[in-house]
């Protein structure tokens, strides 16, 4: 069992990172290995930035002895029309190779239009990416350069130690992407019209560690706002994420295959999950998030296309979820394997939320999923102090577990959910859900089963 699971985890990690790496290398080889080197040769030596330095107070600097690389010193215009990509790449390249710790400065009062770009490390020293002005991509799919990936805008790759911060604004200009006819909310009769559908993630951090991302405002991403994959030691603090509630796939912060991640003190409203946690994530601590309108905080979806997913030790506490389609949710596809375990939801206030507490092991985004006999095992999930109101169109609790692999050790303690308007119509729903009620809940949950299911004693569940 031990051998099998560690080997399995290794395989998943290698497989996923190899896939991503292949995807990245196809997209970025040319600039990573040739263009980048040419840029290094022609670029100016590091110089303190006269322009914009007035708007960047020394007190906000991490390290007062750091060299400042203002994008203005490398030819950025910042009029919102000119293409400032080269200036950013050159500033990055110089800062990254700097012998002192470096600050890349995006000064206040300017708007920088930047094409899709990959900022690659490792860098010689720690970096601060100080965003005081505005940054935005080209406006919509027709303005996107033909030979660039439409799946990502700014990518930070193989960075070991970077703080990205500042009072600036990142505007993803998502509208024209959301309007593509293939987007889920546009599809009328279940038939997805042909045509390109890829949309860029605004900020993607890949294969990186020791990241701090704080204080930024980001709005209207074409797709996810932040995505962290294969990263560890990530501290996210005080982010403001805002997109319309109808914008498709605009998850606020998505993490995947990442560990030791903290997400604190952030305010997110968007058209999909506030925070979504994908396969291979563990040791994730989420605190003081205000979420909504949105689709809530989600673990999953896991186990797509019969894949293995291992997620454990995730805590979400001291947060508010309002006017959202879901509250705290775990979603898995039928046919997957692996497990989700040691998940704690503690002190979450719900305000007019559909499905405040939800486990859905029958997740299916396309309405054409067949019943399958394996599932990602859901175990040790605790809900403590979950209070507030729910939208009576859905049951206050929905624990739909797999026939093949029931959920076990779900614990409810101090749960109190009242209709936001009207009367309770639906009782809490459970299906193959086992666990304990530690104190009386409102409404009462009679459907949770005690003990441990026979089905699991005799089957060989993959516990990761
Ligand atoms: C895309 O084409 C432009 C213009 O031909 C070129 O400058 C750029 O390097 C290309 N980018 C990639 C990622 O191939
Ligand atoms: C669905 O709608 C599209 C366009 O509106 C149409 O071309 C297609 O035939 C429809 N499909 C079905 C199964 O009704
Ligand atoms: C929670 O986050 C909000 C938004 O960033 C912040 O204003 C507030 O001070 C935080 N509360 C605590 C207790 O840290
Ligand atoms: C769970 O994650 C937290 C960080 O979020 C960490 O401090 C703790 O040691 C982890 N627990 C285990 C058993 O790994
Ligand atoms: C899957 O199983 C459920 C519950 O056992 C049943 O209601 C449903 O009809 C099945 N669906 C298919 C496609 O077999
Ligand atoms: C059940 O879950 C709780 C809280 O998640 C945990 O403390 C406890 O150890 C688990 N019990 C078993 C038998 O695994």
TrEMBL record:
| GO molecular function (one) | polygalacturonase activity
Gene3D superfamilies in alphabetical order: Single-stranded right-handed beta-helix, Pectin lyase-like
Q: Which UniProt keywords apply?
A: Cell wall, Cell wall biogenesis/degradation, Glycosidase, Hydrolase, Secreted
Q: Which GO terms describe its biological process?
A: carbohydrate metabolic process; cell wall organization
| UniProt KW Cytoplasm keyword | no
Q: Does the keyword Chloroplast apply?
A: no
Q: Which InterPro entries would you find in this protein's record?
A: Glyco_hydro_28 (IPR000743), PbH1 (IPR006626), Pectin_lyas_fold (IPR012334), Pectin_lyase_fold/virulence (IPR011050)
Please name the catalytic residues of this protein: 295
> Superkingdom of the source?
Eukaryota
The subcellular location is:
Secreted, Cell wall
Q: Which family does it belong to?
A: Belongs to the glycosyl hydrolase 28 family.
Q: What is this protein called?
A: Pectate lyase superfamily protein domain-containing protein
Organism annotation: Erythranthe guttata
Classification lineage: Eukaryota, Viridiplantae, Streptophyta, Embryophyta, Tracheophyta
């Amino acid at each position: 069992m031990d051998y099998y699971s560690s080997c399995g985890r290794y395989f998943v990690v290698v497989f996923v990172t190899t896939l991503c790496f292949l995807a990245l290398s196809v997209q970025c080889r040319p600039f990573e290995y040739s263009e980048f080197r040419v840029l290094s040769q022609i670029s100016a030596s590091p110089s303190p930035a006269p322009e914009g330095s007035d708007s960047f107070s020394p007190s906000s600097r991490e390290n007062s002895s750091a060299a400042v690389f203002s994008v203005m010193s490398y030819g950025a215009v910042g009029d919102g029309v000119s293409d400032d990509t080269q200036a950013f790449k050159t500033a990055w390249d110089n800062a990254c190779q700097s012998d002192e710790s470096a600050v890349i400065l995006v000064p206040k009062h300017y708007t920088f239009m930047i094409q899709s770009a990959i900022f690659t490390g490792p860098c010689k020293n720690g970096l601060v990416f100080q965003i005081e002005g505005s940054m935005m991509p080209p406006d919509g799919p027709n303005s996107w350069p033909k030979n660039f990936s439409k799946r990502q805008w700014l990518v930070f790759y193989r960075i070991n130690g970077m703080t990205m911060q500042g009072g600036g604004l990142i505007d993803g200009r998502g509208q024209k992407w959301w309007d593509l006819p293939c987007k889920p909310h546009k599809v009328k009769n279940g038939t997805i019209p042909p045509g390109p559908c890829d949309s860029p993630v605004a900020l993607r951090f890949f294969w990186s560690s020791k990241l701090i991302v704080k204080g930024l405002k980001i709005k209207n991403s074409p797709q996810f706002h932040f995505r962290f994959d294969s990263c560890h030691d990530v501290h996210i603090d005080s982010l403001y994420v805002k997109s319309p509630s109808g914008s498709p796939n605009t998850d606020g912060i998505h993490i995947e295959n990442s560990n030791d991640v903290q997400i604190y003190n952030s305010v997110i409203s968007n058209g999909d999950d506030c925070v979504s946690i994908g396969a291979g994530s563990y040791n994730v601590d989420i605190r003081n998030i205000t979420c909504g309108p949105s689709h809530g905080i989600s673990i999953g979806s896991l186990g797509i296309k019969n894949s293995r997913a291992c997620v454990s030790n995730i805590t979400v506490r001291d947060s508010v979820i309002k006017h959202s389609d879901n509250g705290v949710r775990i979603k898995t596809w039928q046919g997957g394997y692996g497990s989700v375990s040691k998940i704690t939801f503690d002190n979450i206030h719900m305000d007019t939320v559909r499905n405040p507490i939800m486990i859905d092991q029958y997740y299916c985004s396309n309405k054409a999923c067949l019943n399958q006999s394996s599932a990602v095992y859901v175990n040790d999930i605790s809900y403590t102090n979950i209070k507030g109101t729910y939208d009576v169109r859905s049951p206050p609790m929905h624990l739909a577990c797999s026939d093949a692999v029931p959920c076990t050790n779900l614990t409810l303690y101090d749960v109190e959910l009242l209709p936001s308007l009207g009367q309770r119509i639906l009782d809490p729903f459970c299906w193959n859900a086992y666990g304990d009620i530690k104190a009386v809940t409102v409404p009462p949950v009679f459907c949770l089963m005690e003990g441990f299911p026979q089905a699991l004693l005799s089957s060989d569940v993959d516990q990761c």
